[in-house]
Design brief:
By secondary structure, the chain is an all-alpha fold. Helices cover about 70% and strands about 0% of the residues. A two-stranded antiparallel sheet has the order 1-2.
Length: about 325
């Protein structure tokens, strides 16, 4: 029995060699994206290197003559400051909550857009309208909606036990965070739905019909057929939205300006560079933010472990 298991295991784990077609497509893909990658490197390489260079100095824009090399001191100061971790906590909370809710609602919207027959174009347009609105405009609209003096949220939802006509949404931390996340979810859920709709369109109707004939319920078809075949689309949707939500700035800047401990990591960087002219510390924070985004992207890709070639049916 031991010999049989040992002889089977390597065959099960050996990856099939790539076909000539797959290698040709990979080479074509590299040639197609190469100009865009080169252009992006040209545009972004200098700012990135400049930020890394400035992060090694104590440098205030109002006193450029006092520029002093401090090495990694700016990074140490940032990483040992409670404000940095508090803002990072806010950023993670906004990202996790908003992306999770957007995934659920976006999947529902994607199912509606995929299955609806009557007025399909009008329905898709209506669902995608919020994403077409500029973020600053939507942030002002939601700030007005949650306003204590003339907003409509308190009057419309005063029947809920935790909401009254005098609820001050921007008067404390968690209500203000809720308002920010509500604006974020309303604005970007259509983008999530659009990406998931692309994944739904790739699922073969024959598989769904076969599962239905076999007696599978709708829930079983969802869990056993739809979601597994949408794994690549779900990964891309979560990846794009998580990275975007992690860099949230506009809604916070418009709705609270960081009051009530609602700052994000991006907002902290903005305050250091724009308001306090601390180019050294601000550059260190921007480098840390960049590294955290890279780590987040790596974790999401590793978590899903999606083989895109296999998702296309080439493996």
């Amino acid at each position: 029995m031991t010999t049989s298991t040992a002889s089977v295991a390597p065959a099960a784990t050996t990856r099939a060699p790539a076909s000539d077609r797959s290698r040709a497509e990979n080479r074509l893909g590299l040639r197609l994206v190469a100009p865009a990658v080169i252009m992006m490197l040209i545009v972004t390489a200098y700012p990135m290197l400049q930020a890394l260079y400035l992060s090694l100095f104590r440098y205030r824009l109002t006193t450029p003559g006092e520029k002093t090399f401090v090495g990694l001191q700016n990074y140490g100061t940032a990483l040992t400051d409670s404000l940095f971790w508090s803002d990072l906590f806010n950023t993670v909370v906004i990202m996790v909550v908003s992306v999770a809710i957007e995934l659920v609602i976006g999947f529902g919207f994607a199912m509606v857009m995929h299955r609806i027959v009557f007025a399909r174009g009008a329905m898709r347009t209506a669902i995608l309208i919020p994403y077409g609105i500029i973020t600053v405009v939507s942030a002002f609209a939601w700030q007005f909606a949650f306003s204590l003096s003339n907003g409509f949220v308190n009057s419309w939802f005063s029947w809920l036990p935790w909401i009254s006509t005098d609820t001050n949404w921007f008067g404390s931390h968690w209500p203000a965070m809720f308002a920010i996340m509500a604006a974020e979810i309303w604005k970007t859920t259509p983008f999530m739905a659009l990406l998931l709709l692309a994944g739904l369109s790739q699922i073969s109707e024959d598989m769904l019909e076969a599962a239905k004939v076999d007696g599978a319920t709708w829930t079983q078809r969802l869990v056993k057929v739809i979601l597994p075949n949408m794994r690549a689309a779900i990964m891309v949707a979560i990846l794009f939205r998580a990275l975007d939500a992690f860099r949230i700035f506009d809604n916070i800047f418009i709705m609270t300006k960081g009051a009530q401990d609602t700052e994000s990591s991006s907002f902290l960087t903005y305050r250091q560079v724009i308001e306090q002219f601390q180019l050294g510390m601000g550059s260190a924070l921007s480098v840390l933010l960049f590294l955290m985004v890279l780590i987040l992207a790596w974790l999401i890709v590793k978590l899903f472990r999606v083989d895109l070639a296999q998702a296309r049916g080439e493996a």
